[in-house]
Structure formats: C-alpha cells, structure tokens
Amino acid sequence: MDNWNGIISLLIACIEFILLINILIFADKNPLNKMAVKIVAVLATYQLIEYLICGVNLQSSYITYTAFVVISFLPPMTLHFTLKLFDKWKRGWSLIYLPAAAFTIYYAFILPQFSTAKCSIFYAVHNYPHGDLFGLVYYLPILATMILLFRFRNNPVNKKIKASVKILLGALIFTALPVLTAFILKAFELDGLLRAIVSVMCKFAIGYAFALAIFALLNSKDKNARNNS
Predict the structure, then answer these.
(1) Cα(146)–Cα(144) distance, integer angstroms
(2) pTM (2 decimals)?
C-alpha cells in the first residue's frame, strides 16, 4: 500500500467539501443547484472512502463495495442534471438510475468478491465482478451527457449560464481523458490503467466539481444582485 494515494484522496476530498460548502452558502437553493450539491457530495464522499481504504488501510469487502455504490450513481445523476438544465427531463427518464440500483442490489449478494488489490501513488485498483459490464453501464450516461452539452451548449434554457455550460463540457472532457487513454493502452495489451480507471477518473473529476460550483454561483446571479441592492 502507498499512503500517498490516501493523502491525495484526502486532499481532493477536502477541496470538494470546501466547494460543497461554498455552494450551500453562496448559491441559490434552486433545483439545478441542489443537484449540483448532490453530485459534488458524491465525488467528495468517494474520495473520502478511498482515503479510508488507502490512507487508513481500512480495507474490507464492505468498504470497497460502499465506494462502488456511491460512485455508481454519479453518471445517472450527471445525465439527470444535464437533462434538467436543457429542460429535457421527463418522469420516465428516472429509469436511467435503474442500472446503478440493479448493480447495487446484485453486488450486495456477492460482497466477498470485492477487494482493493493495490493502492499506488495516484489511484487504487479494486477487484469487483463483471467489470466490463459495469464499465459499459457507467460510461454510457457520461457519454450521453457530453453529447447533450455539446449539442445544446449555445442555447441553454437559462441564457445567463451559457458560459458555465461550456465549462461543464470542458470539465467532463477532461474527466474522460483517462478513459480514452485507458482504452488506447488496452489495444496494446496494457490494461493497468483500465483496471484502475474508476479511481483515476474520479480524481480527474475534481475539475467537474469546480465546474459545478461555478455553474451554481452563476445560476444565483440574480439573487446575489438583489441581495447587494
């Protein structure tokens, strides 16, 4: 085990919790900002759990399972947020949470198969069943989110947050870079990064946490103006 991974995870968790507190204090409590709060909270919680795994050496099947349950809901939450942003959300879209819920229930029955195999300087490698299927379910909503942000980047419902939409898109592209790199390396039979991709991607997602904080603050511009008047 390398404690540096725990230190980096704790640092990122602290930064994301600070962003979370800033959104709660300074941003308006509208539905989109509340969703931004939930997403940043998920990111911060995952980093805190990874700190417990790699920094405190609290390694067990249960803690690894908990990390995957927490992070499994990040992609559908991100897609949900984006659909609401562009006024595309319909009640039937709630089904996007079904795969994450299904994995959560299924994995609970095979808990002993979860473990943390390695903690390196920047990432943790977790062992969990059906990794390929989990990866497909995990990355499709993120890809759909990026497509939506790109397609509607110039015409969000709220014109005042147009700039932050582009920031969100850029942050997600940055977050997805390790995934693209991992699959390229996999083509050359180098699968080390792919096995650690959830951990690596969540560290890159600190950029997305910053983007959500910026979005929430810009989405509160009118409120702030009234408070200052």
Answers:
(1) 5
(2) 0.90
